[in-house]
Each structure stands twice: as C-alpha cells, then as structure tokens.
Amino acid sequence: MSNQLPPKPRTPAKVVKRVIILLAVVALYVWTFSSVNINWERVFSERTLENINRIIPQFFDPAWAETGTILVKMVETIFIAYTGSLAAAVLAIPLAFLCASNMVKNKFLNTIGMWILGAVRAFPEIILAIIFVAAVGPNPFAGVLAIAIGSTGMLGKLYSEVIESIDMNIIEALEASGANKMQILFYGIMPQVLPEFLSYAIYRFEIDVRASSVLGIVGAGGIGTLITFAYLNRNWDEVGMILLVIIIAVTIIDQISGFIRRRLV
Amino acid sequence: MIEFKNLSLVYPNGNEGLKNINIKINEGEFVVIVGLSGAGKSTFIRSVNRLVTPTDGELIVDGEDILTHNGKSLRELRKKVGMIFQSYNLVKRSTVLKNVIAGRLGYTGTFRSIFNMYPKEDMELAYENLKRVNIENKLYSRADELSGGQQQRVSIARVLTQKPKVILADEPVASLDPPTSHQVMKYLKQINQEDNITTIVNLHFIDMAMEYADRIIGMRAGEVVYDGPASEVTEKTFEEIYGRTIREDDIRGGEVNE
C-alpha cells in the first residue's frame, strides 16, 4: 500500500490567474520605483553630512534646564489622553451594542452603527484636532475632543467584537429563569464583557498618549506645542529633551498598562 | 401538571421538531425523555418554558395555555419552570453565590438586582440550596475554578433558588464522566422526591434512564414512540425507540458506590 498523497488539483484557469497577479504586482513595483526621482547625489552630499553632524549631537545633549516646563506639558498631554480615552470608553459602549448582531437583531441598524464607527475611524486625530481647534479654540479641550472622537471609532469596533463573542447560552439560561432584559444585561452580558472592555480602553489610552503628544502642533494643547516652538527656533537640544521625556513617559505607561491588562482577562 | 395537546412545531426552515404530541405529565413525576440526537428531545423540553414556540396545538402548564404568553406573562411562566443545561451556563467570571442568586432575578426588581440588594431570606435560600448540593464551601469561588460536576451542581442550586414547580434538564450529564453523572442525577432525583418538583430530563444513556426515571418517554423524528413506566422498560424497548440495536455508547455505566 503506497502512502503517496494524491496530487493537488490544479486547473489551468487558476495558474493563469496567479501568473497575471504576479505580473501585475511586479509591474506595479517597477513603475513605482522608476517614477520616484531620488537625487542620490544630494542625499549623500557634503551638506547632508554637515547637517547631521551639527543637529544630531544636539539631540543627545538635551536642554536639562527646560525639564520643569516640559514635564508640566507632558502631564497635560497625559491628562488630555486620559480624559479623551475615558470619554471614548463610555461613548463606544452604546455604539458597540448597536453594531453587535447578537444584541440588536436588525441588519439595518447594525449597518448604520458600523457606518458611524467607520466614518469616525476614517479621520486621523490630527485632522479632528484641526477641526476642534477651529470650533472651540486653541486649548487642551480641543485635544480632548479630538482624542475622544478618534478613539470612539476603534473602541466601538473592538467592543462590538467582544460582545459578539460572548457565550449566548448564559443569556438563554437567564432568560429561562425569568430575568428581564436589564437584569440579563447586568448579570449575563456585563460580567462577560467588562474585563475585555477595560483592557481595550487601557490599550487605547496607551495609543492616545502618543497621539496627543503631536496634537499640540496644531494648537490643541499638550507637549506638541513645545515641539513646534522648539523646532521653529532650531532649538534642537530642546527638541531632544522633549523627545526624551515623551519616550520615558510612554514607556512607563506602556509597562503599567501592560501589567494591568495581563491581570484583567 | 403539564399537558401537551396535539402539539406540533415546524421550524422556519421547514424541519418538523415536534409532530402532534399528546402527553400528560403529572405533578411530581420524574420523566426521562430518550431518543437519538435530532429526535426532538430538546425541542420537547424547550417548549415547556417557551425557549422555542410550538406552531400548533396547546401546551398547558399549571392550568394555563402557555403558547400565547409573552413579555411579563412569559417571565412569570419561566419563574415556575427552572432549567438545567448540558454546558451548565454559569457566568464563569462571577462567583458561585452571584450565579446562584441569579435564580432570584425573576422575583427581584430591576433596580434591587442591579445593586445586589437582595432580601436576607433570598441570600439564605441561595446558601441553603448550595448546601443541598454539597458545594457550600465554594460560595465565593469564581465559577470557572470549579470542575464540570461542581458547576452542574451550582446550576442545580441556581434552579432551586428559583423555587420552581417544574425542572427541565437538557442533557444535564452529557459533558460529565460516569461517576459525576450519577452524582448529578442522584441530586435531581432527591430534589424531585423531597420537594415534589416535576422533573423532565433529556438523556440518551439507557441505563441511567432506567435507573432514575419514574416514567420514560421515547422520541423519534419528532414523534412520541414510547410512553410508559420505567419499570416496564427493557433494552428491547430502547431498540424499538432508537430503531437500531443498542451500542456501547448508549450506556453510561460506572455506578458510584457511596
């Protein structure tokens, strides 16, 4: 008895399709690279080297004198991220339930929910920040609004996936014991989804700390304002200090949130 | 008393779950429904608390035709009819106590239940019921820390806390090993005798059906093909119900010696 596998079925149509896709991808790459006009001579010129020699060392010689002001702005950045992601963590819940097909058994409403979340996700935070700076003025509140709206899109989507993955048998068991809809929400659904909701919200806060550090560039508060001022004045040592503070703050927050998230689920 | 009168159920996809069922189940009886999977056992049991809705006929529970119930009256029915599931269906991240007190939800106002403000008697009832199934020492453990048999006992305690007149059990031992299966069936039988609660259990193990049932109802393809006291049932009867010879996996075995 031979243990040879039967040959994999291979139709000519499939082979042709694959070859066409391969050729198309290769053509795309060739076209892309040939149409980028990189001036290699300029990239490796004396001037580039000079600039690098002049600026890069300044990054590694941070302006320690500015530590106080920078820390205050970093704290403001974290507050913007915190307030924004907290608002998003709450705003996302009703939208998530609207999208979850096992909660709202109406394809039409699910789709509307998905569209709302999709539309919100389509805006980068920085664009939202520009809009809110125009609407409420150049202050941290604009940053909070930008973060809140931007995060709602992602959290809503993730939450609705959590809701769709819950054990519906438990809901059936509670229904069978005569519980009403609100009781089922608090006894059957919430215990199953809350830890994951919280975990995603903390993860989103991590992202928001990074996102809110650039919002200041468009005037929406936080440490970004300092970056703009420093680089407009060519104070590279100050930029270096700001980057250092951001890196340390983000690392610490990542570590803490990672620790909390591991213990949650 | 539960009475099925010409009861039929056709699923939206055209499958006939139940075909013209006429059965009377008396108060306090311990009925075991046997049949192969797909025979309509689950549909039969789930009709009694309206987890599925029969499409034709009448189903009388406690003097009322339950087919017209909805909303409030349906919840009232479900308070009287407790249910136990194959997969226990406990909230895994909640404590045993919280799972058991959930049996009182039908009796407790929404506000009170959300803020955990149960009357003292209810908490005592929950604790007493955990004692009845010998799992009171796990009171504050999370449900997912318990073994399958322990979880099923917690779900029995939850049903008892509901103070039902009828207990339905849909394949309660299918996920358990033989000794634990017997333990769970013994608790169900004991509760049936002590509290006079009508109990309807779905099983496909013939030895367990014969051991614990007062009465056996056999189903095949949505129809009742046998109905009689357990004492008159033999392996031959099961072969008729199943429409084939008895195999090894129809028998659970492993009686516990306590």
UniProtKB/TrEMBL annotation, chain A:
Q: How does it sit in the membrane?
A: Multi-pass membrane protein
| Location within or outside the cell | Cell envelope; Cell membrane; Membrane
Keyword Membrane present in the record's keywords: the answer is yes
Question: What highest taxon heads this organism's lineage?
Answer: Bacteria
- ABC transmembrane type-1 domain: from which residue to which, for each copy? 74-257
Key words of the record: Membrane, Transmembrane, Transmembrane helix, Transport
State the family named in the UniProt similarity comment for this chain.
Answer: Belongs to the binding-protein-dependent transport system permease family.
Which gene does this sequence derive from? phnE
Q: Where does the sequence pass through the membrane? A: 20-40, 79-100, 112-135, 141-159, 214-233, 239-260
Its protein name is Phosphonate ABC transporter, permease protein PhnE
Entry annotated with the keyword Transmembrane helix = yes
Q: Which organism is it from?
A: Aquibacillus rhizosphaerae
Automatic annotation (TrEMBL), chain B:
Pfam families assigned to the protein according to its UniProt record, in alphabetical order: ABC_tran
Q: Which domain of life is it from?
A: Bacteria
Q: Which GO terms describe its molecular function?
A: ATP binding
The record places domain ABC transporter at 2-246
Q: Which UniProt keywords apply?
A: ATP-binding, Cell membrane, Membrane, Nucleotide-binding, Phosphonate transport, Translocase, Transport
Q: Does the keyword Cytoplasm apply?
A: no
Q: Which NCBIfam families match?
A: ABC_phnC (TIGR02315)
Under what name is this protein listed? Phosphonate ABC transporter ATP-binding protein
